[in-house]
Design brief:
By secondary structure, this protein is mainly alpha-helical. The protein folds into 2 domains: 94 residues, Orthogonal Bundle (Fumarate Reductase Iron-sulfur Protein, Chain B, domain 2); 82 residues, no CATH class. 58% of the residues lie in helices and 0% in strands.
């Protein structure tokens, strides 16, 4: 695939470097990040291609990549980087930037992520059935994998009720509220 540098945005490179607090320029394209990525087989752009796109200021090319949403955040790429770039942090930063630019390439993953976080916010930990229900409501995928629920319930892999709330559930809720408040303040400024 040919890449056009006509739409190169050097400010994009600076923004990613500043937001991720990583030295993007020190990536010399060794490919260790891509070679070790356990999710790389489903990526449209390999991690090294994303890093190169960031270096070249190819904002649309990078932020529209489906790979951002399939990243497992396992940090294998970061651990393998000979220049100690936290590549996983760069990927997380790019996901945030894609959200800000309304460039979520895989909406179902984003809907699942929001559903999972909603249950953690209210119950202090993951509530599997709640996550499934919220995801189905958000995605409109009402019958996907419904056949698995009875089997999981019988094997006690899913509970109908949330787990006993952990001691720190109020602290977890406050963290979420503080984060939401900070984001609202940033959006207002």
């Amino acid at each position: 695939m040919a890449i056009s540098l006509d739409r190169s945005d050097p400010n994009f490179t600076k923004q990613v470097a500043a937001k991720s607090q990583q030295d993007i320029a020190s990536c010399y394209q060794c490919g260790n990040c891509s070679a070790g990525c356990p999710a790389g087989f489903v990526y449209d752009l390999q991690v090294s291609q994303i890093m190169r796109g960031v270096q070249l200021g190819l904002k649309d090319y990078v932020l529209k990549a489906r790979s951002l949403w399939f990243c497992l955040s396992c940090s294998t790429c970061s651990l393998r980087c000979p220049n100690e770039i936290d590549v996983a942090q760069v990927m997380e930063t790019l996901r945030h930037m894609a959200r800000e630019n309304n460039s979520v390439a895989v909406p179902a993953v984003e809907k699942f992520f929001k559903s999972f976080l909603a249950t953690v916010r209210y119950f202090g930990r993951s509530y599997e059935i709640g996550t499934m229900v919220l995801f189905m409501l958000r995605s409109g995928r009402f019958w996907t994998d419904v056949d698995l629920a009875p089997k999981a319930l019988l094997k006690r892999k899913l509970g109908l009720l949330p787990h006993q709330p952990p001691e720190g559930v109020k602290a977890v809720t406050r963290i979420f509220e503080r984060f939401i408040e900070q984001n609202n303040q940033r959006g207002a400024s």
